[in-house]
Amino acid sequence: MKLEAFHLQSKVLFSLNGVQRLLEVGLILFSSLAVFMLLALISFDPADPSWSQTGYQQQVNNYAGRGGAFVADLLLFSFGWIAYLLPFFVALMGYLLFKRFKDLLSLDYLILGSRVFGLILTLCAATAISSMNFNDIYYFSSGGVLGDMISSSLLPYFNFIGTSLLLLCAFATGLTLLTGISWLTVADYLGAGCFYLFTRLLELPQRFSGKAPANPVFNETATAELPQPKAKKAQRNNLEATEPAWSAAADEDDLEPQFSWPPAAEPEPKRKEPLPIRPLDERTEARAFYSVDSLADDQLSFSAVDDPNESVHIGRTLRELEEQEELHPLLRYPEDEAVVVEEDDSEEVAHSLEELPSLALLDRPDKATNPIDPADLERVSRLVEAKLLDFNVEAKVVGVHPGPVVTRFELDLAPGVKVSKITGLAKDLARSLSAISVRVVEVIPGKSFIGLELPNQHREIVRLSEVIGDEVFNESKSALTMVLGKDIAGKSVVADLAKMPHLLVAGTTGSGKSVGVNVMICSLLYKSTPDDVRFIMIDPKMLELSIYEGIPHLLTEVVTDMKDAANALRWCVGEMERRYKLMSAMGVRNLKGYNAKIKEAIADGQPLKDPLWKPSDDMRDSAPYLEKLPAIVVVIDEFADMMMIVGKKVEELIARIAQKARAAGIHLVLATQRPSVDVITGLIKANIPTRIAFQVSSKIDSRTILDQQGAESLLGQGDMLYLPPGSGVPTRVHGAFVDDHEVHAVVADWKRRGKPQYLPEILSGETTEENLLPGEVLEGEEGEADPLYDQAVAFVIESRRASVSGVQRKFRIGYNRAARLVEQMEHSGLVSPPGHNGNREVLVPNRGG
Question: How does this protein lie in the membrane (predicted)?
Answer without folding.
Answer: Multi-pass membrane protein
